[in-house]
Write a structure and sequence with these properties.
Blueprint (H helix, E strand, L loop, with lengths): L5 H23 L7 H14 L3 E2 L5 E2 L2 E2 L4 E5 L2 E3 L14 E6 L1 E3 L2 E2 L2 E6 L5 H18 L8 H14 L3 E2 L4 E4 L6 E6 L15 E9 L5 E3 L6 E3 L5 E9 L5 E2 L11
Antiparallel strand pairs: 1-7, 2-3, 4-6, 5-15, 6-9, 7-8, 10-13, 11-12, 11-13, 13-16, 14-15, 16-17
Helix pairs in contact: 3-4
């Protein structure tokens, strides 16, 4: 959507601030021995406490309806992970939490990844590059620039570091619904794709993987995993397009490990 008034912007900023506060509490709850489903239950409790709804629960894809408040993906689960009640989080894991709320009709959507405890040097590099790739794209979220400008920045940052980005899943506009135009892939050619407009609200996101970018969807119909079992990270920020792009979900300074 394109913000049309200061009142609209103020309401949306309230939504993103509240969403960030809930996501922060979920981050604090990530510990070895915790099941991902426990984090999702906490997300539901925090939504209820704050009088909002999850923007994910009830999302329909084909014949499937998503039944959880968040997506929690671990290691080679790259995105859309159904919160597990089978495997506990362990030291060395890379945990991705994708979450959003609906506040007064406005949708939020953002994601972070953290390493749990002591992690390998490669995983640390993957975390750093994953975040850097998205932030390099955010810098380009200016009126007149294109989706291809942002996508090229994300893929180029990742590729130069020896990693790759997923091509099947894209960033997107957001507003009165979870997914709106334009689509913003994590690859592209400078100058190609949709042109960004002032005060457009977009989700700039990227999934960065260690090896092959080919993925498959598990039998649950949601969880996306790498075919080569390589690990991946995901970062996503909501951004207001302007001469100086504004991150509405400013989690970029959060430590990369817990």
């Amino acid at each position: 959507m394109i913000i049309k008034s200061q009142t609209e912007l103020a309401t949306y900023k309230k939504a993103t601030q509240l969403s960030k506060e809930i996501l922060s509490q979920l981050r604090e709850a990530i510990k070895p021995g915790v099941y991902p489903i426990e984090l999702d239950i906490l997300a539901g409790e925090l939504c209820k406490k704050n009088g909002v709804r999850s923007s994910f629960k009830g999302v329909v894809s084909g014949h499937l309806t998503y039944g959880f408040n968040s997506c929690i993906s671990v290691n080679d689960e790259i995105l859309h992970g159904i919160p597990s009640d089978k495997r506990k989080i362990q030291a060395g894991d890379l945990v991705k939490i994708d979450f959003g709320i609906i506040y007064q009709g406005f949708y939020t959507d953002h994601c972070f990844t953290v390493g749990v405890g002591s992690i390998s040097a490669e995983d640390q590099k993957l975390l750093e590059i994953g975040r850097e790739a998205v932030l390099n794209a955010v810098k380009l979220a200016k009126p007149g620039n294109t989706a291809g400008d942002l996508g090229f920045a994300m893929h180029n940052t990742s590729y130069k570091a020896g990693f790759d980005t997923l091509k099947q899943y894209v960033g997107h506009g957001i507003g009165k619904s979870l997914h709106e135009n334009p689509e913003i892939p994590a690859f592209g050619k400078p100058g190609a794709g949709a042109k960004l407009e002032k005060n457009m609200i977009i989700c700039v996101e990227c999934q960065v993987v260690t090896g092959d970018d080919r993925v498959y969807i598990e039998n649950n119909g949601w969880t996306v995993k790498t075919k080569d079992s390589g690990k991946g990270v995901m970062f996503e920020y909501m951004v207001r397009v302007d001469k100086k792009p504004e991150i509405l979900t400013p989690t970029q300074d959060w430590p990369l490990t817990v």
